[in-house]
Amino acid sequence: MEHKVIIKESSSVYSTILNFILFSIIISFVIGLIARYRKKEAFPAGMRGANSEHFSESKDVNVKFSDVAGNSEAKDNMQDIIEFLKDPDRFKKFGVKIPKGIILYGPPGTGKTLLAKALAGEAGASFIATSGSNFVEKYVGVGASRIRKLFTEARKKTPAIIFIDEIDAVGGKRGSEGTSTSEDAKTLNQLLVEMDGFKDDENIIVVAATNRLDMLDDALIRAGRFDRHVMVGLPDLNARHEILKVHSKNKPLSKEVDLLQIAKQTVYMSGADLSGVMNEAAIYAIKENSTEITLRHIDRAINKIVAGDEKKDRSNISDLEKKITAYHEAGHAIIAKLLNKESVPKVSIIPTTKGAAGYTLINPGEKMFQTKEEILNKISGLLGGRAAEEIIFGKQNITGGASNDLQRATKMALTLITKYGMSEKLGLVSFDDREISLQNELLLSETKQILDKIYKKTLDYILVNKDKLEVVAQRLLSYEIIDENDLDMLLVG
């Protein structure tokens, strides 16, 4: 009897121990699955392999500076970088420290990425490209880890150019909007650490691109990091001519096409815009089964880039809306031609796919500086459409068609006050973009006063030229489009 009791108690103990072991195994298995899942989420597939999908690599870059039209100053600024990567010992003998980083800054579409590729191509260096947005992650440590992998890969393939597009996504001012999280700060710090850790013999240059140099963190652009800043601006007349030549290669242009004249008509267009013009012109020619690209195709392409395609279905546009649009665009044209002495290649009241009821193409000419009077007159040109509506249809019947004009006029007036120091009340001040806000009552009051004053001047100017306004508007209602020659003849009388 005692023997049976002992066996029973021993069996109970063994059972308890076995259950505990099985339970522990199950818990460990579940914890392991959760850990693996979290690791997979925190470090996506592209981060776990040796070659990250968050940057692309190219050993043999075929792009050279000869392939980059315009931007001669930017190319000259980077020439010593090429020489250093080709022959670093020559520079080291003189104790020269080559810049660790270069910032290419300027408007979108001006060729910053192409310049970075050409730099690698000229120097015979590996080109490793990524974007600042690839380092912005919600998971802890991912951004910093990607930075480390990027630089580790570059060190294996020297000489190398690391290109980071949209650097402001990861290198924006800390504490400002968009870079306020601790994770963003850690990523930026890791970038700074990697650049500080460069050895003199590593032959790695970091090239970054941004549209907003003023938004970058001060620690990023100080000496010893991105200490060379290269402006890549919109092309001037000669540069536009060269860019058009590049993008018209192997395209059957009509003999009537004068690329220099096209360059004169495309002020403020970027290299990307000009490429788009020639490409769209070729598409129009193909659609028409034409054997060559004519001026008409290029003209349509320019209109598409600037204003969008013309809408084919206009059945929902009433006669009154068409009339309002005609006077609105005539108002813009009169101020541009008579007051500002600007070229106006085309005025149209045909609605476009970009939402415009009509448009007035203005070629403002190219000047390095603008006087206060010229800026005020340009604001007047923007307000000319609204002024014409009020004169013809009355203050109670003005439309919302001037919305974009008013936005641009307000921005121009605000820039005059806060950037150029041309305000009578505020005087010689120039603010950082982050300091500018129309919530500031003084700025709002001064901006409103300038716009009100210019609008009154615009009303008076159009009233004096009301006969010309009528002639231009009526011509638009009859033909829908007026070119510059027609406009000049209409305004002679």
TrEMBL record:
Record keyword ATP-binding present: yes
Domain AAA+ ATPase: 98-236
One GO CC annotation: plasma membrane
Organism encoding this protein: Clostridium aciditolerans
A single BP term in Gene Ontology: proteolysis
PROSITE patterns assigned to the protein according to its UniProt record, in alphabetical order: AAA (PS00674)
Required co-factors: Zn(2+)
Family the entry assigns: In the C-terminal section; belongs to the peptidase M41 family.
Statement: the UniProt record of this protein carries the keyword Zinc: yes
The protein's name in its UniProt record: AAA family ATPase
One GO molecular-function entry: ATP binding
Stored Pfam families: AAA, AAA_lid_3, Peptidase_M41
Keywords, ordered alphabetically: ATP-binding, Hydrolase, Membrane, Metal-binding, Metalloprotease, Nucleotide-binding, Protease, Transmembrane, Transmembrane helix, Zinc
Ranges that cross the membrane: 12-35
